[in-house]
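Protocol step 4 of 5: obtain the predicted structure for the target chain.
Materials: sequence only (see below). No template structures provided, no constraints applied. The aim of this step is simply to have a reference model before the mutagenesis design in step 5. Sequence pasted as it appears in the construct record:
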Amino acid sequence: MKYIKLFATLVLTLVVFYVFNTKIGSIPPMGKFLDPSEGIWQNETNDIVNGTINIDELSGPVTVHYDEHLIPHVFAQNELDLYKAQGYITAKHRLWQMEFQTYAAAGRLSEIVGDAALDYDRQERRRGMGFGAENALEKMMADPKTSMFLKAYCDGVNSYINTLDNANIPLEYKLLDYKPESWTVKKTSLLLMYMTKMLASRDHDLEYTNALRKFGQDRFDLLYPDFYDVNDPVIPKDTDWSFINAAMTSMPPSELPLDSIAETITKPHPNNGSNNWAIAGEKSTSGHAMLANDPHLGLNLPSIWFVMQLSTPEFSTMGATLPGALGVISGFNNDVSWGVTNATRDVVDWYKIEFKDASRKQYKYDGQWKNTTYRVEDIKVKGNTTINDTVIYTHHGPVTYDHNFKGDNPLSGYAMKWVGHIGGNNQLTFLNLNKSKSYDDYVNAIKTFTAPAQNFVFASAEGDIALWIQGLLPNKWEGQGKFLMDGSNPEHDWQSFIPQKFNAHVKNPERGFVSSANQHPVDENYPFYVFNDGYETYRNRVINDFFRGKEKFNIQDFKDLQNNNYNLKASELVPDMLNTMDVSALTSEEKDIYNQIKSWDFNSGIDDLAPSIWLTWWSKLYASVWDEYDVENVALNKPFEYQTIFMLKNHSQDEFMDIVETSKIETAEDLFLISFKQAAEDLLAWKAENGDYVYKDYKATYVGHLLQALPALSRFNVAIGGDRNTVNAASKNHGPSWRMIVEMSTPPKAFGIYPGGQSGNPGSLYYDNMIDDWAAGRYYELNFMQNANTRDNVISTQTLTSTK
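Step 4 output (structure tokens):
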């Protein structure tokens, strides 16, 4: 009997040993993960460390002061050492995030999470992410300065990686049971491609083709207009375009293929956007030009941005950096400040490709057969065999859709044409912006920026303000890019690009301010065709009306505007809904809800009930209006929200107001009541389970870890007002990812904050310490140190020195 017990104990010990040292499914190898000497416990950290750090081949010592927010202020004797130090310090605090995002961009997530990521990886490779990154890398490496600094940055990252062992690698590596790779210049290029995709506008050509076929041209034009009846564009309406002497591409006499597709690849988050603005000195109470920027992206931990000051004897700059890339992206120096918003220009088009035969070695073009090229994508899958996916490339770009991926015809497919594939030296833009001293420097710096199209706002100590819509933008014929095009017709190709000097821009406008909030870039007088892919219509009008509203503004005004929760969208529809809806049959509970929203002042504050009612009511109403779009096996994109409200108010008896399921003839007024009762049902169910639907609880904003399956590393129920249509564009898991305000005094006075913390380590006090202040609308004054001898608010100092 004792031998049976001994045997059973031995088996149990082996099983426990196996389980604790083997990754099973999504569960990490718990033995390694919990090991006292090398596991999670080693990731509790004290970020406040003084002393000397040796890294490879610095030409001189680099001083790094950390302030009370763990912001590093880096002082080097030359740029080569500066960017090497930037790489080292960024990796020290954000290594896993940096690398994980490059895995995502390259379509390599299956290597670390297994089969669950295979479809995602195939999609990203068929999107041409690696192809675009390689083309951009070629452009960056062709410039000696960019190449040299990128290599220095890589050396810095790798110097940090070389200090790591099993005990102190970041937590997520332990959790997913893999190790960091050496950092390469290609990884930086992939990271930039990741951001390019994130901001690649709202590509719906295939969905619009389905809508055109289903509803016809007249209905399509009504639902998806190129210009709204209200248009307060980025570049003021009174701009004189007579200096433009390049012609727009003529529309060819040709047919479009009206194919149908059931499913399309995932798109960037539709709320990806931003606000920025600048005012001239005469509109500032201080007499100095002022600038603000708040990019709207996913709310993630670790945070998208990492704040740094980068200084040499020649220049000093500070602001939000992108972990994995050089320089400051949104920031300032002693002479100028700058920020960016998404221009959402249509730079992605789709072409139908007809192959000669099943070999797909040739495709029809200009009455002949043109050769394709193959790109074999080897996708390694953790715990499984490597998958090979052959992607066909044409002169348009990769054939993303074919019979092997979301298609069923071996003799045809859809190719993607994207400016992001062309490649450009975006790094050089920010290297030069960081050192700019004047408007001319700013204009020269942004010339190399290719994609994604961005609205670059500018202010200077000299008093200039400006805004350029910058990117490599196709010169399209009217309507080009709305729908699937004929890949065999040369006239459907992009014929040219808008000359950079004719990109829409404005300097020192008479009104005394510039602004952008992802609205239409121009009015109808701009000579080049601009496709409306759903431009923003509410935030921009609130911002512009704010600056038209009084003569002078100060820093507090800027803070108030960035945190403005006024819901212009609701204010333009709710009164119509309330005034025309038949309320005679409402229950007592429904009448209470009705009265709550009737008394709303349209500010979406955290303690209010009405914003929760609006959020639910609008969702139900929008779905009811466009139920015709709920068609199985047909990819469709519902009309813009502004145009939906236009239809409800101006075409209240249109056939779209009918509910398909009931076959009854309804009007907009009927839909108001139907959707209100549906919303009331949801709200009352919430109330029964959770208590009052107070907005902060009902919206339940959260900042999620990049691995969304890790709630312990995320922050939930963040108390912040606003929604995607307010200037404070905070929705459930999306919003202002960095708020910055700069007054161009001498030296500049700057404020900034973001929803996270400087450290990427969940064991750090600085992992998420800014979130509550960010939600409450508070700011940190940015300590822009004028020299390395500064000690104000310094909590630790490190010296980086060479090992050789």
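Step 4 remarks: Residues 45-242+274-345+425-477+495-566+737-791 form a domain with the Glutamine Phosphoribosylpyrophosphate, subunit 1, domain 1 fold (CATH 3.60.20.10). The chain has three domains: 1-34, 45-242+274-345+425-477+495-566+737-791, 568-602+609-693.
Proceed to step 5.
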